[in-house]
C-alpha cells in the first residue's frame, strides 16, 4: 500500500496546567482529560505520534513543590514520543534539568544548547521516530531566553542568532536526513516571530516539512505558511491540543495530504484517564495541605490580561514592593506575573503560582538620562509582539510614548519632569538585574558608577505575603502610568 496515514499530536507551554479549569460553567483542560484524549486517538488511529514543544514546568505548586519531578512523572504517563525543552525547563538549574531528563520516560532533544568549554551538546540534537515503515526526523531548537535564565552558569551557551539556528538545522539534515526519512519536523521553543524568521532561512533542499512551536502562547485556527512550511502552535496549557492528520505516499516519498486543527480538551471531546487522575490526586493531596490557606481577600478580582501593557495586578505588585522601601521606583517584570486574574479570595497557592520566580530585589541608582534610555528600549517596536521584557512601574511614574515617532512625549515622576541629571533609585528582580544590559540596552558598568548596586530584599514573595496578610480588601486600577499613542 503506497499511502499511509499519520496522526501527529502536539502540545506546548503546559506550565503546570494540571487541573481542569471552569469556563462559563464548563470544564476545560487538565491532565486527566488530555491523557484521555491522547489515549482515544491512539486507540482509534493506527499511527500516532505525540510531541511537546517545551515549557512543561512552572505555573503550579505541584510542579514547584517537587522541583519538576512531579511534572516529569505525570507527563511520562502521557507517553510523548519526543519533547524539546523550553526556557522554563532550566528554572531549577541546568544540572537539575539533566537529572530530570534521566528520570523522564520519554526522549528530550535539543540541537543548540551546549557546553561552551568544549562545544559539547547537552542533549541529543535529533530523534528519528519509526512508525509503520515511516521515519519522522525531529530536531529540537530552543529560545535565546535560556541564556537569560542561565546567566550565572557560564559554561552553558546557545546559538542565540536565528541564522546560526538555521545553519544548525542544515547541519543535522545534511548528516542525519537520509532516503529513509519520510518527513522532517522542527520542534521549536522560540516563539512565533522567530519561527517565521527561521522558516524563511531554511533551505528547501533540507526537506523540513513543518515547524511545531511554542513559547509565545500563540492561539491559531489554521497553520501559517512561511517559505512553504506550515508553522503551528497550540496556545498554552492543557485546554487544547494540536492535531495533524497526514497522508504520506511511501512510493513517491512525499506528503499528499495535510490537515491541522486545534482540538479543545473537555468532557465533550475526551473521557478522563483514571490512572492520571489517581496520580494527580496523590500529588495534589500533599500540596493542598501545605498551600490551601487563605492569605488575603481583594476588593474584587484583579487582572493581568497582557504582559505588554499596564495592568491592575502589575500596579498592585509594583506598589507593594515599593511601599516603605529604600528605593524610589519598582520595575516589576510583567512576565513574572503568571496569572491573568487573581482574587477576590487569595490562597497561598494562588499567590505562589502567580509569582513563582521568587527573586531577590536589587537596588540601583540611575540618572534621568539613563532611565529614559532604558524605557525607550523597553518600548521599542518588538515590545508589541509580546516577546520582549516589559515592566510594570510603581506609582509616581508617568510615561506617554508615541509609537510612530519612538519618542517619550511625557516622562514625569511625582508630577515633575525627569531631567537628565536627576538621580532615581530603582529596584529590579534578580533575573532582570543579572540581565540588565540585555533587557535595557544600557551598559551596567555605566549605571554602577552612580552607586554600588545592593540587595535590599531576599524574597519578593516574603514581602507580598506580609503585605497581603496585613492589608485585606486590596484594590488596584489601571491609572494611565503607561500611555501608548498610535
Kindly describe this structure.
The protein has 486 residues and is α/β, with parallel strands linked by helices. Helices cover 29% and strands 29% of the residues. It has two domains: 3-285, Metallo-dependent phosphatases (Purple Acid Phosphatase, chain A, domain 2); 294-485, 5'-Nucleotidase, C-terminal domain (5'-nucleotidase,  domain 2). The strands form eight sheets. Strands 8-9-11-12-14-13 form a six-stranded mixed sheet, covered by helices on one side. It has a five-stranded mixed sheet with strand order 5-4-1-15-16, covered by helices on one side. It is globular. The model has no long low-confidence stretch (mean pLDDT 93).
Strand content: 25-35%
Count of strand segments: 29
Spatial shape: globular
Provide the CATH architecture of the largest domain: 4-Layer Sandwich
Q: How many helical elements?
A: 15
CA distance, first residue to last residue: 58 Å
CATH topology of the largest domain: Purple Acid Phosphatase, chain A, domain 2
Question: For the record, what is the CATH homologous superfamily label of the largest domain?
Answer: Metallo-dependent phosphatases
Mean pLDDT, rounded to whole units? 93
What low-confidence regions span 5 or more consecutive residues with pLDDT below 50?
A: none
Q: Helical content, roughly?
A: 25-40%
Instruction: Tell me the strand order in the biggest sheet.
Output: 8-9-11-12-14-13
* Integer tally of domains: 2
CA radius of gyration: 23 Å
**Structural class, please?**
alpha/beta
Characterize the main sheet: 6 strands, mixed
